[in-house]
Design goal:
By secondary structure, this protein is of the alpha/beta class. The protein contains seven helices and twelve strands. The chain is 32% helix and 31% strand. Strand 7 and strand 8 form a beta hairpin. It is globular. The site of glutamine has 13 residues, from helix 2, helix 4 and strand 8.
Length: 242
Amino acid sequence: MRIVVGHLYPDYLNIYADRGNIAVLAERARVRGHELDVRAIGMHDDVPEVDLFYVGGGQDREQALVAEDLAGKAEVLHAAVADGAAVLAVCGGYQLLGRSYRDLSGAELPGVGLLPLRTVAGKRRMIGDVLLDCAWAGETLAGFENHAGRTSLEAGAEPLGRVVSGFGNDGESGYEGCRAGRVYGTYLHGPLLPRNPWFADRLLMEALAHAGVEVELTPLADELEHAAHTVSAARARARGGR
Ligand code: GLN
């Protein structure tokens, strides 16, 4: 089966191993007999029909460059999500998936509104290893955060996980990330998917479901991946709570 991934603004939002996340999806699809067809969606491009959207991280400067263009794609992105497409947005991309992002200079950038949240930049950056408890999936996520933005979820919004160690969305609420159906946003990179194979497979299954195949993916040994998760989780635990 061919899984089409739409990589939004790879020329702008591409820090923190964002291409590494796509490489993980491609390899985990390939060993199960599927092919990942990755299409770059850049400035002024039409949004093609895809099974999974990916938006990576970027600094305020890059976010300011793409925000208007991305907000202009909101209608078609909302329609795609309503049709069952999955979305993973990391860090700067996560912020732009919310309602708005006020950057350090005070500029208010428009968001896509796919996730019920707002972000305001603060002075102190929140940096370090993070461990999340994702009770909804019976799993944990380990990663690394580096952001100035403080993200507030609206009432009733579902976080991606509860912070075991690290700052998370705002360093206060104990929440990290947000999920709404098949749309996931998170500050975790470092990179995210190589250390958290269950999450990569979840995204692949949801993308496959959108492509028309409801399948369980055959489990992989994932010895290196689990070792990487263990190291990352231990570093986060050593860092301690918020
Ligand atoms: N510019 C945003 C912040 O610092 C996002 C940074 C990022 O993508 N790491 O909050």
